[in-house]
Every structure is written in C-alpha cells, then in structure tokens.
Write a structure and sequence with these properties.
- The chain is an alpha/beta fold and about 350 residues long.
- It is about 45% helix and about 15% strand.
- The chain is built from 17 helices and twelve strands.
- It has helices at about 5-15, 30-35, 55-75, 85-90, 95-100, 115-120, 125-130, 140-150, 200-205, 225-235, 250-255, 270-275, 285-290, 300-310, 320-330, 335-345, 350-359; strands spanning about 20-25, 40-45, 80-85, 100-105, 135-140, 160, 185-190, 215-220, 240, 260, 295, 310-315.
- It has a six-stranded parallel beta sheet with strand order 9-8-7-10-11-12, with helices on both faces. A four-stranded parallel beta sheet has the order 3-4-5-6.
Amino acid sequence: MYPPILSIINILIELNRSVCVVGYCSDKKIISNLENQGVKYFEVIINDTKDYSILKLIKLFFYRRKVFTFLQSLASEDTFVWVFGNQNIWLLSRAIAKYKSIIYLFEIPELSISGRYRILSPIISYKQVMNSAYKVVCSEYNRAHITKAYFGLKALPAIIPNKPTFSLSEICDPFEKLFANDSRKIILYQGIFNFPERRLEELCQSINYLSDEYLIVIMGPDCECKSLMQSRYESKRVFFLPFVSPPLHLQITKRAFIGFLSYFAHPGLIESCLNTLYCAPNKIYEYSKFDVPMIANDTPAIKYLFNIHGSGICIEDFTAQGIAKAVESISKNYDSYSLGSRNLYDSVDMRGLIEDLIE
C-alpha cells in the first residue's frame, strides 16, 4: 500500500515490463487493480503486527524460503529484482548477490542489523550486501551521499524522489459530498500519527488564530494518539477523517488550500535524526500534484525544495501563532506559491528516472 512502491509498479507497467509482485498487500482492491493490468501477485507472507515475536520470527524464516523459491522459478539473467527496505536487505542477501538486484531505500538505512534479523542472518556482511547490488536507490540527495559514505559504495546511489504517479481519471470520488457546500479553505494534514515525530497539536491550536474562512482537516489511520487529539480538538473547524487507501486519498488532497507537514527527530537516534533532517516525503508531491502550497517545520531538505521552487514556507517558530502567520502569508501571495508548487511537481520525471535505472 506504500504509494512510492505503487508508483514504481505503475511506471514499469507503462514501460511494458512484465511485473511480478512477491510479498504481501493487505488491500485486495489494490492487488485486483494491478492484476487487471497484467501484474502477477504472489502472496508469501501475512503480516500481522499483533503477532508474538517468536511467530514473527518463524514467518520471516518461511517468507525468505518462499521468496527464494519464487525467484528460482521466475527470475532469469535479464530480470531485475527490486528489494525494498532494510528488512529485505537483511533477509534476502543471497538473492541480492545472485540476481540483478536494485536495493530501493525510502529512508536512510538502519546502520546496524536489528536483533531479530541478526538471528535469521547471523553471518551476513551488511556492507558486502549493499555493494553486491546492481543498483542502490535513495530518495534524496543528502541521503544518497550518507549511504555511499557509510557503506563504502563505489558509486553514488541513484536519486529518485518519492513522487507518486497516481491518476484520478478513472477513480470515483467517494468524498464527493464531503465539504461540497463548504466554502472554507482547507488546511490539510494527511499521514500517520506518531508523536513526537509528527507534531499536530500546534496545527490544531492554530485555528484559534485564524479567521472563520479556514478549516483544518486531519486525515490518517486510527490510533491512540489520534483519538487523544480528537478528544481535545475536534470541532466545527477541526475535522478528523479516517485513513483512505491510495490513490483514493487524493480526492481529499486535491481540495486542500494549504498542505501541512511536520517532521521532528527522536533525540539520540542517529538514523531518526538523519531521516528527519533530510526527509523526502511523498506528501510534498501529492500536495504539489494539485498546485497546493505547503507549510512545514524547518528541516534542511524540505526548506531547500521550498526555496528553490517557491512552493511553501518552512517555519522556525513552530507554534500555533507561527503556523497561523504562515497561513496568512501564503494566502496573500497564493498564486505565486501555487505556481511554485506546480514547478516542484514538474521538476521530477519519474518515468525517465526509472527508465534510466533499468535501461
């Protein structure tokens, strides 16, 4: 269900590549849609976060065996094997070395192998596995250089931003009546709730410093953090919506007046700090797909993009008043920020980047 992975699959379909997805997806509608486009789907694990640790370990053991079995029957010397994320690197090290593998990193990789995976792969050389890949992909310039330096890679990883490539042309709008008669300007947050990384309290409080023409909409999966925020802030001017599977969530995104992002690092965790400072959220491309200006806290990677394209404001004063001030600033220069958002979106040619990677 991760939008960047779906984007890669969609682009490979456009490039007339034969695509096999080996793994797990809990959304059967997504799989059905892919299968209707000729994608072959092989479910090799059922991922349940509620499983006990020992059961998770057993599942991962059989997952690895099943993946190897499928690769032996499906892959040839011309096959590209796309390996997404840290855990698959640790589990599928032999496959990475054997096949023309593309290690695709959505974040800076964890710099050490976690305990569960060290049990499953006790003799793995992390650096050797990374260097055995045909290509390594990072989603942001600074992340690519950090990855190259830490693992001693011979070449800088390819840099492919997390830009979704969804199309709404054939998607029905289940939210057609939502806010249909509401002329207020929506300040939208779409994402997960994992305080303190995603700070949303200040966004909710900012409504008290904004005129009645504004409405805050917060959309994401249910959890304890979200429930607590709802109990504190839900009102006629602060709405909470459930998680909606991609790409249907874009039907809400396109209605936004301003898109909101927040990324705060966990102190003491180096990977968290680096990933936050050089974050590469797919949300910026979802907002910019519809020319929506953005507000974010001050992080180097996002601030660089906003400054280059003029697509939004990174605020140093991350308070309710600071957010309200940024909203008013964007409103006064809305056409300019909206054009900057469009320029940001158009600056990345995902099809060309993927094509260069595999040609």
